[in-house]
Amino acid sequence: MVDIRDVEVIAPNFKQRLSGVTSTIIQLVPVQRALGQKIAVLGPGLPKSLPSVRFRDLIHLWKRPKGRPCRVWHARRNVEMLPAILLRDLLRMKMRIVFTSASQRRHTGWSKFLIRRMDAVIATSGRTAAYLDVPNTVILHGIDTKRFQPSFDKTEAKKALGLDPAKKFVGCFGRVRLQKGTDLFVDSMIALLPCRPDWGAIVAGRATGPHLAFESELKERVAKAGLADRILFVGEHTNIPDWYRALDLFIAPQRWEGFGLTPLEAMATGVPVVATDVGAFSELVIGGSEETGLIIAADDLKAMVDAAAAFMDDLPRLTAAGANGLARTSKNFAIEQEARAIGAVYESLMR
Prior knowledge:
alpha/beta; Rossmann fold; 2 domains; 6-stranded parallel β-sheet; 12 strands; about 15% strand; elongated
């Protein structure tokens, strides 16, 4: 716990179950604190290591923090906007409200009502901004570029995971389910690998509940194709950066995505990316002279096969795109840059 009198920004988390929003808070807050932002979290489902305040501490919001005219409440869900509006407008507490929107669909009337009452709105991508009818600031997510970085020796990186160091590997990481397009990845590998004996494939991620049957069907499909020793289902791992470091190509085959960090994680590890045109992928992966990968239409198996083959069969292009991706993430997508951009929004409200 921290003394709310020393807090200028409150980041509420009113959802017990882990979600992408919760993960964002967990990753960002320590970086924001390290940059000097006086931020604390509020609510359940967060690590005890994060600086936090209690609900009973909110009584202090009637008083200004030292040297500031108000505090900032940074909401990321409807359920976090509503109480902030009541605290500010009904109880007249000295605070301003920021909302971060990651939605890529038309907002409901209720959501629009809440969003129109925000003091500032952040969109996590240009595509998200297009669904907002209020002024907003686009701030793309960043990643921890110290955690995600290339291996100095890819051969050793593969050996450490029990992979064949003589082979190149293409990977697909994330939850195993239809929405994530895992079946498209598997089918593309079934089409590509028989003619490319020097390549293997890795599916890293977990299937849960109703998606277990989907995963089983994919494994049966792989076995029927005679590729069970070359298309590997390795499950969920906490050391996922090590798996990226063992890859030579990454595919993000999602049919739908809110933002999607996996292309950034791959690029930060020096791995080129083939990604579907969903979420923020088209804003992360670029072509042209500084190519980091290819963007393809969602749910298009042929496009995925062709794009993957373009890199698998052209090693100089593969190497160049990997180097370009590393440079792009280092320059534009370090999580510190995201935290500074958000901090600038806070500052504009607390002046």
